[in-house]
## 1
Amino acid sequence: MHQRSENLCRQLYRQRWFYGWLVLLVAGQLSCRQAEEVVVPKVEVPPVVTPPVDVTVTLPVVYIGSYDGKLYALDTLTGLPRWTFRADTSIQSSPALAYGLLFVGTNGNSLYAIDATTGKQRWQFKTGGLVYSSPTVLDGRVFVGCNDNSLYAIDAMTGRQLWGYKSDYGFFSSPAVANGMVYVGGLDGNVYGLDAATGLLKWQFTTKNYILSSPTVVNGTVYIGSNDMSLYAVEATTGRLRWSFPGGAPFEASPVVTNDLVYAATINGTLYALDTNTGNRRWSFTTPNGGIRASPVVANGAVYIGSRDHSLYTVNALTGARLWTYTTDFDIYSTPVVSHKTVYVGSTDMRFYALVATTGAQKWSFQTGGVVLSNPVLAQKSAIAGTYPTISGGK
């Protein structure tokens, strides 16, 4: 009996020692976790940007990409190429001009920087997916979305990646940059507001479907369409909704804002002019025979917009009354660029056109080797008239 008591005491002692040790171990782990949780996060240091070189391109040329894998510099008077750059594959992205360079994405998972005067490659940045998005350039940084689920910030002078932001799906939308922020729509249905220097997320606004439209930022408001059939106006600093407009069909084209009106088109072929403060409709214009996936341009008191019924329409910017129409041989997805005298636009009939801005009469056309979905940009920025969406390259 005495021996049993001693054995029981020894077992209890061992158990007390084991559980005491276990409690101390768990307490130590908890204290470590607590210490890890209260560690002050490090401050994100913006990557160093190479100071950009200020270069003015004076050539009288208009630049346009094609599905034949070429970027063309066409003389604005004759329509003949001054130079041609061959990329790795087809070009759907629209070029952006800055620092004497053209920045353009390709369906070969690349972003190029090309000398705008000579057509020679400066650098090539490889991504993990197709680059449908068109680049936006500001303060030495090139911002572009990609089908590999990333939005990239690239050093404009060197092609070095500065930062990348990952989403659940890719980015077809082209980014807009304003007041130190980058705004972009995602295929996951979210509108993102990111710090332009670091790529840190400031806010996101969720729509009910994927987004192909690119944002336009004016007077502290981000305007963007969604495939949930609504156009949204959200606060640029917070992402809070100001108003939404139901268009009855998806908004895939990008909106344009000028003179207290936002112009936006749906894929069923209706162009709306809405009050920027309230979202109330001022007027609408519907193309007779096709939908709209090109974005509008407002210039010379008119709205210029291409349609899938093969036509470029020009309507009065204040009333929506039709002024003139020019018809190509196939659909127009390209957003035009406009000077005071000429409208330049591409078509999926594989041609690029120069038209008289006031009448629509053809000045010249240029035959490419593929459909033209890319939007043109003029070398002489002083010649550009009007207001454009982000993807136009007009700004």
Note: The first strand starts at residue 61 and ends at 65.
## 2
Amino acid sequence: MSHTFDDLVRLEQAAQAAHRQYTAPGVDDLDTARRNWIDAAAAFQAAVTEHAAADGKLSRVEVEMAVKKAVRHGGTEGEG
């Protein structure tokens, strides 16, 4: 299944949230927090690769950068 750009944004936001939980002071279960972060980041990367292959207009790197820019600065520049 190909992911939409909005799906990719949500996956990147989830990966960033998991990273914040992993690096937060006083994390009770560091191993679980780390695994959650790695899993979320891997899901994002897999979805980006799949999206780029299905879309064919942008490279995987271009898709990833457009998503990260949208997450950091808002908007959906580079995709529709």
Note: Helices lie at 5-23, 30-55, 60-73.
## 3
Amino acid sequence: MIVSVVSMPEGIVARTSLPEARERLAASRFLLVDIELPEKAPPGEQPVSEQLGLEAEDLTWLGREGESVRAEFFGDSAGFVVPVVETGQVTHVHAYVTERYLIMVRRGPIGPVEGLVARLRSERPSDPVAALFLLLEEALETFRRSAVRDLLEMEDLEDEMFRERYPQQVYRLARLRRRAALMHHALLPYPEATDETFARRMLSRSFPEERQRLARSFQRAARLVLANIESLQDAARRTYASYSSLVAGEQNGVINRLAIVSTIFLPLTFLTGFFGMNFAYMTDELESKAVFWLLAVWLQAVFLFIALYVLHRTRLWRKLRDDSLDDR
């Protein structure tokens, strides 16, 4: 377990223990506490809220493994479980904010939290609630960056498919489609929860105008990021349709070639089967070499010439040749 305490507005970061962080929470006016827990909760782990001296609050969910998204107000405080994207995977940061401090709990190292600490030093928010909105915006930014990166990869993959196709492209496309669906599934409930919570809160006269502005800004950003993820899903569907069309076009070319071969050899197969029958006339009368060469070779050559002439006159051969040149 790693505990970092950021004193604001000085921006001083100090590593400490949970008991010391508990003492500083009781005395501080503006404090940010970042707690990094192991990725897997050990058996019998004591709730973080109890270790911080917050037993009176309903915070048993704080830091609990597998907790779903959350956005709730508890009078003068609020609790959030914020989804973030880290190295292509969706994880969650737990946040609890009051007028005096902001507590963040996460399992494993999460890059956006380090970015948030850097922003706190430069932007110097006026209170812990403003710092909370910075955390929410930083979480949305991870989704936006991931969606833009995957969209560019999707476009590169589509261009690559038009030049040459190989099976690995299908696996890459399936991975991108799944990632887009995962991000959409993870982010969609969160704007809905925060919109409902902020809407109820903003109706209260005690909600300051500055915080209303921050809430509206976050809601607009969440809708834009969600639109970016939906655009990524549309691009994934379009790319998959393009790949299917290209593969279908190649299959049509193969079928055309097989049709030409069948057209050429079908008369030959018929003649072979016909003269292979054991009729008395064929076995008794068609015995000389001259008859064999006339019927077995020249007749087949005539049929082959007629088949090629029909293919040429119907322009099917020229179309197939042009398709082959386009594939190159």
Note: The longest strand covers residues 77-86.
## 4
Amino acid sequence: MAQGKAKISISLDAELVVEVMVLAGVGSPQDAIELVVRDYIARGHRPAARGESRDRAARDAEVQPQEPQG
């Protein structure tokens, strides 16, 4: 029996997949999603990317100053 990588099947919204295909410039839904997942994993392994994400999240979460109440 030949050994290969385990595979899974998932369902995604078609519009979402088409948008990813267009952005990635790929004609296959399988290839487009695989590229996105591989990129996400690669970014998670880069220390600068992790720090950047945390910094951005912290900036986004900062409380905006309240306007003076009159």
Note: Helices lie at 14-24, 29-45, 47-61.
